[in-house]
Amino acid sequence: MHHHLSLRAKLIIMGSVMASLFLVALDQTIVSTALGRIVEQFNAFESLSWIVTAYLLTTTVTVPIAGKLSDLFGRRKLLLIGVAIFALGSLFSGLAGDINQLIIARAVQGIGGGIITANAFTIIGDLFAARERGKWQGLIGAVFGMSSVVGPLLGGWLTQGAQIGSLTTDWRWTFYINVPIAIVAFILIAVFCPSLKHDKKPRIDYRGATLLTLALSTLILAVDNTESIFSGLMDATGITLVALRAIMFSVVVLATAGFIYIERKADEPILPLHFFKNRNFVLIMGVAALFGSAFMGAILYLTQFNQQVYGATPTMSGLMLLPMVAGLMGTSITSGQIISRTGKYKIFMQVGIIISTVMIALLTTMHPDTPYWHEGLIMFFLGAGLGVVMPVMNLAVQSEFKQQDIGVATSSSQLFRGLGTTIGVAVFGAVLTAGLASHIGDMSQNAYIQTLKQSPVGSTMLKDTSDTNTLLNLNMHDTKQRITDNFQASISQLPLAAQERARDTFDGQQKQYNDTIVNAFSESLRGIFVTSAVLMAIAAVLVFSLKERVLAKASPNEAPGVE
Fold this sequence. Notes:
Layout: H1 7-42, H2 48-73, H3 75-95, H4 99-127, H5 130-159, E1 163-164, E2 167-168, H6 173-176, H7 178-192, E3 196-197, H8 206-223, H9 226-229, H10 231-237, H11 241-265, H12 279-308, H13 314-319, H14 322-342, H15 346-363, H16 372-398, H17 406-440, H18 447-454, H19 456-461, H20 468-473, H21 477-490, H22 496-545, E4 561-562
Antiparallel strand pairs: 1-2, 3-4
Helix pairs in contact: 1-4, 1-5, 1-7, 2-3, 2-4, 2-8, 2-17, 3-4, 3-7, 4-17, 5-14, 5-16, 8-11, 12-16, 12-17, 12-22, 14-16, 15-16, 15-22, 16-17, 17-22, 18-22
């Protein structure tokens, strides 16, 4: 089957697959730059978390199901459906008239994103013999790396109002921009991608899919922004957050148990349980989950470090990640090439994960006076380590299974990585909040906050002074700018000498506040980087226990039929 397609056709298919993946990877970073403006326009601060969670929820749930469906119905069909859904979701997100429409559109977009993610990595397994896959996995890794810098830059540029001809962009363009790219990808896939299908009669395991959906979505809601999402329910019923989470986790356990019970009997299980008898599969899933959480912990909080400690704008903080991306793209592409020549992948995972672990551990040495080059150097090597591990995980999983199971196997590793990320981010958020609370103490009596409470702009921002996000937001570059401009306007009527005195007092209060926050923040981050490094170290132990299979040069015997 690998022989029927010309190299040109394979290149075009991979180009269109990479374009659709780029959309999905870009989406995660581009939206974060637009969130502030969206919340302001819709005046819906309490729904902020849903904009992120809705997408995450549907993507996570879709990935394993889409992986299985593509094994049954062929990748081409599913990829086309995924790209179309993603484009529609993006279009409606851009057109949203209120916050609820936006949240629904984001959920739709997430379904498309999940289908694309599940299939993109699998197509490599279909088109290429095991040996050749390395190069392509490496390129896709590079696409992900690139999107993490392009996202914030493009997002910042569009959100702040770029001029394109006579048109001025706003946050809605961070969604609209997906549509033309998706249309091009759709046409290329429709024209060039063969229908990669198996001769099995498709039977969908609906009960398994339902229980898996229930388990995954409850899990995500129990860890991601639970407090803000269910605040209404908690007020109405008087249930505590701990009790609510306990109920949700018991639902997760019950649904998972039911899922396992059904999967044992299903003809075409969504996630075949015999996979878990394969030692390498279990190890790789563990690595994927740990890697996902540690990776996200590092990237997310480095961006925050840049904004809080160095006072970078969102756009700047994206640019400051460039050393990491340079490292990631470099090793991702190179290691892919070498693996394709040698057929050996384990040594790359070992070296990559050790470098990553050491670099994340070194992040704990950063403090407010650390010069940027110190961070940049660590980031470069961290990127280099991550860039090797990311693509190789998929290769390792694919080499364990026959062609007809490759979709489920690959999407499982995406699923575990996604779950690791979600749970990791939730845990890190809790670590950060606890750290800030203990380092800052009670801020309600702080002079700067008292001053802000009397100003019109401050009183809306400061609904809750015990909320860490509020306190951190006051330290953000754009917010500080707005507060200072407002203060300037409010004292402009006073005589000059009084203006100067007021400004000095204000500047002193602001500086003292910012120093408190920055110190508390960088102390708390240390906890996150330590946790992250420990997770990465456990992943490293798992990597060393993998049994390597040298990747085959020839095409697999059981190639699916091409129509």
